[in-house]
Amino acid sequence: GGLTVAGGASVGKDLYVGGDLVITGSVVSAGAITFPTITFSDTTNCSFVEYYNNNLITIGTLGILSFALAVTPNVGSTPTEIQFTLPGRTTNLTKRGELVANCSGYTDDTNVIPLFNVISVGVTGTIKGLLKFQSVSTNVHYFTVHCTYILD
Fold it and tell me: Which end of the chain is more exposed for a tag (fewer CB within 10 A), N or C?
């Protein structure tokens, strides 16, 4: 059988679809996107400045987190790092690769200077991620981080 509704439809309870779901318009999913609090800690050779543009998209037990971050290195040309919590994660990571992350960074907000040697991985035994980089100077360094992980 089939169902065609020319106007619109609303379902007040759970809806289970056993086959494919094909959508030709946009998808709006209230509650799937949140703006979580992220805690930053365990800094090495830097000071936390701020974070912004943070959001967490949840699809079942998958979390897709993105945010921007600014830190000030204490010294130039040195290994530097900061850790961040993974909102919604409830069990400690057992492997660094349980957090799949992409990150990039720069300094000098006027004449952008890209940063090299930037990585983000999970911190085993915790519900945190690690952002590690080689500082360029003591000027503010800016980063964007986009990562996925299981919320359980």
Answer: N
Take residue 65 and report the two structure tokens written for it.
């987190």
Class of residue 96 by CB neighbours under 10 A (exposed 0-12, middle 13-18, buried 19+)? middle
C-alpha to C-alpha distance for 152 and 148, rounded to whole angstroms: 12
Q: Which two tokens stand for residue 8?
A: 């619109």
Sheet bearing 46-59, strands edge to edge: 33-34, 46-59, 62-73, 141-150, 100-107, 113-114
Q: For the whole model, what pTM was predicted?
A: 0.87
What's the DSSP call for residue 120? E
Q: CA dihedral in degrees (127, 151, 97, 42; nearest 10)?
A: -20
Q: What is the pLDDT of residues 56-104, one digit of tens each?
A: 999 989 999 999 999 999 999 999 999 999 999 999 999 999 999 999 9
pLDDT > 90? residue 122 = yes
